[in-house]
Design brief:
Length: 269
């Protein structure tokens, strides 16, 4: 059973970090680019917020490991490990000053314990302790009632589409025709929380890393949602990019996998 002190601690550092981001958007935000990719933006606040969270975790829980987006070295998943995205939706942070989140998850020997996704500008904390349901601030999120696939809305991260590992085997246009509509919100963790809330049903991205989804998927699974790698590969928690899909139920997940993710046929020799 997770000690309630650690939950209070985690929410507190996330809220305080959020206050810093609210202050940051009062001024001009200067951004650079990561590894010569003009779509992967980086601000001084990605680094500062991450340092802030790591500093407090190390001070309070010195034997815990940390995996985070901007940190150079990555810990393994033995014992307690925090998985951190200091700003999920950096492009939204820069361009809209809205719809970005701080994502913090705690795992124990690779098993989920605690997930916190803080929508800073809405002041909504989505959080879940494994086995004890999901909440937004103090309100319990009810279990998901999945719709028929034809009534679903999907958030598809087009940013990543060119890097789908087997792009000729993904029929996203066919999926878009079958369902009610599609959106692209620019923050993986917030989109996954939108599935938990019942506002959308599917989130797909080709290039997600553990810090993008590890907290939000705890919130999602606690209300009956489902996620995985639609090519049936392992979901890596260390930060290796994976093809990722989350959905409001395992049934919808399987329907989308079967109809729109076609695994290449292996030639028999
Ligand atoms: P980030 O803002 O922390 O980088 C945007 O489509 C969503 O995908 C965000 O959650 C963003 O997280 C994530 N993402 C992961 N890898 C990305 C990349 N290479 N470029 C842009 N967004 C990326
Ligand atoms: Ca990033
Ligand atoms: Ca992210
Ligand atoms: Ca980030």
């Amino acid at each position: 059973m997770l000690d309630s002190k650690i939950v209070v601690f985690a929410k507190e550092i996330v809220r305080c970090a959020g206050q810093e981001l609210k202050k940051a958007i009062q001024q001009e935000i200067i951004c650079t680019y990561k590894e010569n990719d003009h779509r992967e933006l980086l601000t001084e606040f990605d680094v500062k917020i991450e340092e802030y969270l790591i500093h407090h975790i190390k001070n309070n829980y010195p034997d815990h490991g940390i995996i985070s987006e901007e940190k150079e070295e990555k810990d393994d998943l033995k014992g307690y490990v925090w998985i951190i995205d200091p700003i999920d939706g950096t492009t939204n942070f820069i361009n809209f000053q809205n719809n970005f989140a701080i994502s913090v998850a705690l795992y124990y020997n690779s098993q989920p314990c605690l997930g916190i996704v803080y929508d800073v500008m809405k002041d909504h904390i989505y959080w879940a302790i494994s086995g004890r349901g999901s909440f937004v601030n103090d309100c319990r999120i009810p279990p998901r009632k999945p719709p028929l696939l034809r009534n679903a809305i999907a958030d598809i991260s087009l940013n990543s589409i060119e890097s789908f590992y087997y792009k000729e085997h993904i029929k996203l246009f066919d999926l878009a025709k079958e369902i009610r509509g599609h959106r692209c919100s620019g923050s993986a963790s917030l989109s996954i929380c939108q599935i938990a809330l019942g506002n959308i049903d599917i989130y797909i991205s080709a290039k997600l890393k553990s810090w993008d989804f590890s907290a939000a998927t705890i919130v999602l699974t606690e209300v009956g949602g489902y996620y995985g790698n639609p090519f049936a590969e392992k979901v890596d928690l260390t930060g290796t990019p994976i093809t990722f899909m989350a959905s409001s139920s395992q049934a919808i997940y399987q329907q989308v996998c079967e109809r729109y993710f076609c695994l290449p046929k292996v030639a028999v020799t």
